């Protein structure tokens, strides 16, 4: 799960800004490579939650609602962390501007490593609550990265190419979410099984490995020369951002989007295991889960091309070539045959058509993509076998640009309230904690297939938000890009 965070103190927009940033630039190649690897690990570990849920559900004999506490703990930390940051910024000033972005990133990486280390006692004690505590700490670390890491990327070179660098790191974040189900699933479901059985210990070594990688990464970041900057900010008192209807609606839009995306990914493996769907064991279904997240990666590459200044004919050509290359990359990762994944080509073509019809307009594209996802979910709910599974796997493609488009539309026209509005939007990631929990309750009461009505309702709200913005919101800068 990759969510495009706000950038504390830096706004990639043509709106009037209340922050002045001075940057000292140097050779940015090595720092950019380092940050790109950080984004990859960030996406990889986040997506491991989708592997943890069926694993812990089987070991602790949990129902769907109880297993969704994994996402509740992880994404609840985003809300708690961003709320604390918002309050500190409001009363004491932006803490990142005081300690520096580099120290902020290192703190986020080390806190994430601590969260990974806590999986060791959780596995040793075999207590579900300790697992949830570890996930909460891990989520707090990623919250700090949400606030800090993206701004650093914008500083690693000329301002005019900042969007390009953000798209690059975002793509590698998505690459991490794509291979996590395959590699992470192999670690938990195959390599570290004991006597062929699922145990709590099978998470112990993988997460210690992740912790070690993060600690090494923090050491590298501490030694790499990154740009220094200073800023003078003036914060607005009160909650003036809430007077803008697009911001109020956008907060709920982010809540719905994150909740829908996380809920679908969390239940996919269990959904595929149903006898009347595909009856696929967990060790194999992880490969199809990689298609869901791989679709988001493909869609983000296509979105970057669609929002460029190229002529329409060139956009189409570049999108087709890019989609083909990235699809081949995803296909080379997943352990399934071309025949088993060829259906995905249909969704890629539909995705390109939707981008063309959307004409690079954020609101129009958002409406189209939300409408397609509603149709795909309804088809999955009323179908059986492959016709139920394939539509859900295609949803990742149409999730790809939703966060960035909702964010862009929500903050458009906020002027001096952009920073405040951004903080409120990131708090709305709470949807990833609450809505999957509700979907799990629906799955327990009415069956996992019917639980997908909930994300369909979420996308319906996003469609309504898009329609409102088509009529009421004038986007002043369509090249606002923030990474998740």
From TrEMBL:
Transmembrane stretches, start-end: 29-52, 72-91, 103-122, 128-153, 174-193, 205-226, 247-269, 289-309, 316-334, 340-358, 365-382, 388-411, 423-442, 448-469
Swiss-Prot/TrEMBL keywords: Cell membrane, Membrane, Transmembrane, Transmembrane helix
Keyword flag NAD: no
Subcellular location field: Cell inner membrane
GO MF terms held by the record: transmembrane transporter activity
Membrane-related topology note: Multi-pass membrane protein
A Pfam family matched in the record: MFS_1
Listed name of the protein: FHS family L-fucose permease-like MFS transporter
């Amino acid at each position: 799960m990759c969510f495009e965070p706000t950038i504390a103190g830096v706004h990639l927009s043509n709106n009037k800004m209340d922050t002045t940033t001075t940057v000292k630039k140097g050779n940015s190649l090595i720092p950019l490579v380092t940050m790109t690897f950080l984004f990859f690990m960030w996406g990889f570990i986040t997506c491991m939650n989708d592997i943890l849920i069926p694993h812990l559900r089987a070991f602790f004999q949990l129902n769907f609602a109880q297993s969704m506490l994994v996402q509740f703990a992880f994404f609840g930390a985003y809300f708690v962390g961003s709320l604390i940051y918002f309050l500190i910024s409001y009363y004491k000033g932006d803490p990142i501007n005081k300690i520096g972005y580099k120290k902020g990133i290192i703190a986020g990486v080390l806190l994430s490593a601590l969260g990974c280390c806590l999986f060791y006692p959780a596995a040793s004690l075999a207590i579900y609550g300790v697992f949830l505590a570890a996930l909460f700490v891990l989520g707090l670390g990623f919250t700090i990265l949400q606030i800090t890491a993206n701004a650093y990327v914008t500083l690693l070179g000329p301002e005019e190419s900042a969007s390009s660098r953000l798209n690059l790191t975002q793509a590698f974040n998505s690459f991490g979410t794509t291979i996590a189900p395959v590699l992470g699933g192999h670690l938990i479901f195959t390599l570290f099984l004991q006597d062929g059985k699922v145990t709590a210990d099978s998470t112990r070594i993988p997460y210690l490995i992740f912790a070690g990688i993060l600690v090494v990464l923090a050491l590298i970041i501490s030694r790499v020369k990154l740009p220094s900057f200073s800023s003078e900010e003036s914060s607005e008192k009160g909650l003036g951002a809430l007077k803008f209807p697009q911001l109020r609606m956008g907060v709920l839009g982010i809540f719905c989007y994150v909740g829908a995306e996380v809920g679908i990914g969390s239940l996919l493996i269990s959904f595929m295991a149903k006898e009347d769907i595909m009856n696929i064991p967990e060790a194999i279904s992880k490969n199809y889960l990689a298609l869901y997240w791989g679709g988001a990666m493909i869609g983000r590459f296509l979105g970057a091309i669609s929002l460029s200044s190229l002529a329409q004919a060139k956009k189409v050509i570049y999108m087709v070539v890019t989609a083909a290359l990235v699809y081949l990359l995803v296909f080379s990762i997943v352990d399934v045959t071309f025949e088993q994944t060829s259906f995905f080509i249909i969704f890629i073509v539909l995705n390109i058509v939707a981008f063309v019809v959307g004409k690079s307009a954020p609101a129009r594209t958002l409406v189209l993509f939300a409408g397609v996802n509603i149709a795909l979910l309804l088809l999955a709910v009323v179908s059986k076998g492959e016709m139920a599974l394939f539509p859900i796997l295609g949803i990742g493609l149409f999730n790809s640009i939703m966060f960035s488009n909702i964010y862009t539309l929500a903050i458009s026209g906020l002027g001096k309230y952009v920073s405040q509005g951004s903080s409120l939007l990131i708090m709305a990631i709470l949807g990833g904690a609450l809505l999957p929990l509700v979907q799990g309750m629906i799955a327990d009461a009415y069956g996992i297939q019917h639980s997908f009505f909930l994300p369909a309702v979420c996308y319906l709200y996003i469609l309504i938000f898009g329609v409102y913005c088509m009529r009421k919101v004038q986007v002043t800068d369509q090249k606002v890009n923030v990474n998740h």
